[in-house]
Amino acid sequence: MIWIEILSKHRDVAGRFRVDAAEIHIGRGYDNHVILDDPFVAARHVRIFRDGEGRLVAEDLGSANGLYLDRSKSRKPQLVLDGSKPIRIGQTLLRVRDAAHAVEPERLVGSERSALPVVAAITLGAVLLALNGILVWFAQTSEPHLSDYLVPMLTLIGVVLAWVGIWALLARLFSGRSHFLRHLLIAEAGLVAFWFYSEFAQIASFALTWTTVFTYGYVVAWIVLATACFLHLREVGRTHLIAKGVVVAVLLVVAIAVQSLQRSEAFANSGRPNVSHVLMPPALRLVPLREQQAFFDDLERMKAKLDADRAELKPAGVER
Predict the structure, then answer these.
(1) Which of 18, 48, 171, 214 could form a disulfide with 205 if both were Cys (CB 3.0 to 4.6 A apart)?
(2) Could you write out the DSSP letters of every residue in the chain?
(3) Least confident segment among 51-65, 180-194, 230-244, 298-312
(4) pLDDT classification of 317: cutoffs 50, 70, 90
């Protein structure tokens, strides 16, 4: 007894046929044991038989499109079947198993889904809403109103749900499962990571005069976004991960390069560096303030350098 399983593109069993024959023929013709409705399959495409050792073997019967093992691009005249990896003929995936094939143990009802991802999603969501409320509170300069807090929170929830919904829909289309909770965790973790870095950059630039971490915060933002997109793509489909990583990396480099060029041109035109507009208490200032005389000494050195540069550029024979 041999079982022939037709698999969907998501590797789910779309059809299962039991055949009691020493040799099985599969194709599009009506004289086969298993008939496939696939225009890329020959009338008699492949036969299944047992070799001298009792192993199941698939043999190509001279078809135009050939016989392949799973996703391999190497055409094979014969394949020894192990019951795990499917074979591909035309655009159809087939899995061949005998009656003695061992199946996985049954799963316990209710144990498939752990509560940990749900708790993590709720925790990260609470952290995001708390951070959003704290930032609104820090920026409050007038009489507080409930709408000042509700509108940003509702906007954040709407944006996150829309973003996660798009990725979940793509995952449903390409992998057969939406993985909504996983996409939600990825989006929440990315936002938390970016907000923590943003606040760290604000404080570090004020307290320690580490202006670099604030000036190049957009680089971190792009990296966080690219990482989140790659993780989303992995949940959409676990295939071609290297190609997906390369595409995301190339787009990341292009985005950072374009924004760096724009910022450099804006600085050349205006001469104004990026500064933080968030007021912070003086107690956070860890680097001591500069003395007044040090400021004027820097001005004198700058003036001397400018005078020296003017002297070098002065044409010969021209008096000052």
Answers:
(1) 214
(2) -EEEEEE-TTS-EEEEEEE-SSSEEEESSTTSSEE---TTS-SS-EEEEE-TTS-EEEEE-S-SS-EEETT--S--SEEE--SSS-EEETTEEEEEEETT---PPPPPTT-SS-SHHHHHHHHHHHHHHHHHHHHHHHT--S---HHHHHHHHHHHHHHHHHHHHHHHHHHHHHHS---HHHHHHHHHHHHHHHHHHHHHHHHHHHHS--HHHHHTHHHHHHHHHHHHHHHHHHHH-SSSHHHHHHHHHHHHHHHHHHHHHHHHHHHHHH-----------GGG--SPPPPHHHHHHHHHHHHHHHHHHHHHHSPTT---
(3) 298-312
(4) low
| More confident of the two residues 116 and 87 | 87
pLDDT at residue 245 in the model: 93
Q: Residue 96 forms beta bridges with which residues?
A: 4
Report pLDDT for 204: 83
Choose among 7, 30, 32: nearest CA to 19: 32
Q: How confident is the model at residue 315 (pLDDT cuts 50, 70, 90)?
A: low
Measured between alpha carbons, how far is 42 from 39 in angstroms, rounded to an integer? 8
